[in-house]
Amino acid sequence: MANPKLRFYFREPTIDTNIPITDGTVKIDGFDWEFVPSEDECDAWDCGFAARVRAHAKGEAHISIPAFPNRKFRLAYIYVNSKSGIESAKQLEGRRVGIMQWDNTAGVWARGALQHYYGVDLTKINWCSPRAKKMALAEGIGIEQIESKDDPDLLLDNMLLDGKIDAVIGPNVLPSITARDPRTRRLFRDFRKEEQAYYRQTKIFPTSHIVTLKQAFVDKHANAPVALLKAFRKSRDVAVDRLMGPDPQIIMYSWMAAAVAEQRELMGDDYWAYNVPNNVRELEAMTQYAHEQGLTPTRIDYRTFFHAEAAAPPGGGRREPAAGNRKAEKVGPGVAGARNLSDVGATGRSPSARNNDDDQFR
C-alpha cells in the first residue's frame, strides 16, 4: 500500500536546516513528501512564530511540533541612516522608524529586545509601514501608513537612504547594507559582539519559524507529528554534518569550524535544539512580547501549541549517549489522544539548565 502524502509548504526551502529534506536526502517515516507552493494547499508548514501565536489566539485549528528550523538574532536587523545621529537603541525614541509590518516575527523579537534589554519606550517611536494592517495594537502604539506598491524592503531602504525615515527594523538585510552604501549602517556596528552580550544576559536565541500541522490532517494521521519531528531532527543533523563533518560543504568561508566552535563555547552544544525544554525561554519570551505588543489579547500558554506526543520524546540528538548515561528529558507523559501539551501537563527543565546536558543536539 502506498504511503499517504504529507503536503509541506516551506517558507524557507533553501536554508541549511531544511535543504536535506528539500533535496531528497531525508525521508519521512510512513509518508511521502509533497512540496506545495502555498500554505493554503499544505498539511504542514514552517510557520512564522508570531503568526503562529496570533493564529492560536484566534482559535485556528493548528498544532505544532518543537522543530525550529530558522533562528536569528535580530539586533543586526536594526538599521539607521548614517547622518541620523542615532548611536544607541534609546535614541530611537522620538524618531521615525520603518517596519515591514507590526506582526512580523523579526520585528516582534527586535522590539522585545529594545523594550526589555535596552529600556526603549516603544510608544515614543514614530512607527511607519507599507503594511499598516487594521489590527489591535498595544496601547500608545500608532503606525503611519506608507502608501506605496513597491517591494517593502526596497521601499524602506530607499526611504532610509533619502533620510525620509531615521531607522528600519526588518526581517532581511537591506540592499544598501549588502552594497555597503555609506549612507546607511547597522545600529550596532559590532553586531556580533552585541548579540553575544545579549545572549549572555538573556539566554534567548530567537526562533523565527515553528513547524506546524493542520489539526484536520493530524486527526486523520495521528502518527504525523512524531514522524515530522523525527524528519526535521534528521535534517538538522545532516545539515550539521555538512557544516562540520569530515568533508564540509562550506567553500566560501575558510574558518567556519572556528565560528561554530565559538558559538558552541558561548551557547553550548545544544544551541539548536528541537525539543520544548531547551526552548522554554524563547517560548515564554515570544508569548510575552506578542501580548505586550498587541498581537494577542491575553498571554498565550505556549504549552497549548504543541502536540503532546511530539513534545515528549527525549533526545533525538546526533550522538545518543548509552542508555545508562542518558539523562531524562521529558516535557509530558505523551498520553495518546492528548491534543496538546497542556492536556497532559508540562514539567520542563529550568531554562538555566539548557546547556548542561549530554554533548548532543536534541
Descriptive notes:
The structure is a single chain. It is built from 11 helices and 11 strands. The chain is of the alpha/beta class and 362 residues long. It folds into 2 domains: 216 residues, D-Maltodextrin-Binding Protein, domain 2 (3-Layer(aba) Sandwich); 128 residues, Periplasmic binding protein-like II (D-Maltodextrin-Binding Protein, domain 2, 3-Layer(aba) Sandwich). The strands form 2 sheets. The protein has a 6-stranded mixed beta sheet with strand order 8-7-6-9-5-10. Strands 2-1-3-11-4 form a 5-stranded mixed beta sheet. Helix 1 links the parallel strand 1 and strand 2. The two termini are 33 Å apart.
Mean pLDDT across residues = 87
The total count of strands amounts to 11
Reading side by side through the largest sheet, how are the strands ordered?
8-7-6-9-5-10
Order of helices and strands: EHEEHEEEHEEHEHEHEHHHHH
